[in-house]
Amino acid sequence: MLRSIFGKGGDKKMSERQQILEMLASGKISVAEAEKLLSAIGEQASTQTAAERSATPDDERYADRLHLVPKHKPRFLRVLVSEGGSQKVDVKVPLQLIRAGVKLGSVIPKDAQTKIDESLHEKGIQFSLSDMKPETIEELIDSLCEFSVNVDDDGESVRVFCE
Question: Strand (E) positions, 2-148?
């Protein structure tokens, strides 16, 4: 599937994931298409992981069942909202998209960043684009992976978690 999009040879210096994110950033594909492509890459990676795992000794292969090793690294931030038993919102945001957003934010001119920060502060949002660094985002994503919100009230339900 990816070969039909990127061609047979492709740019060997650039990973498929980077190509997908660049296509998304340039508007060549939609967010939904990028999500499907990133999922396809993830399935390939999970197959490789399973093959690698089968080649390891038995004690390591079963360690994840004993909760000694994390089962997998989450790839999506998921938001689910339901009301009266019916699903109203089901959003999956690729965590890689958040990482790419930080990288794209670094190309915003400083004066534009200042104006954006001032506008956010005027609206009561304490957030600064200039403070967003790749290391900070990795910490945020790691924290999100350990975080979940489950709210149930009068037949309405909101869940936010990583998967």
Answer: 76-83, 86-94
Q: What is the pLDDT of residue 120?
A: 80
The sign one gets for the Cα dihedral 24, 89, 139, 63 is negative
- Strand duo 149-153 + 156-162: pairing: antiparallel
Strand partners, 76: 94
Token pair in block for residue 131:
């403070």
Can you give the pLDDT at residue 131?
73
| Whether the Cβ atoms of residue 155 and residue 85 lie closer than 8 Å to each other | yes
92: phi then psi, degrees, rounded to nearest 5:
-115, 115
**pTM for the structure as a whole:** 0.43
Provide the 8-state DSSP code for 163: -
Which of helix, strand or coil describes residue 80?
Answer: strand
- pLDDT beneath 70: ranges in the chain: 1-14, 43-72
Residue whose tokens read 């919102």: 89
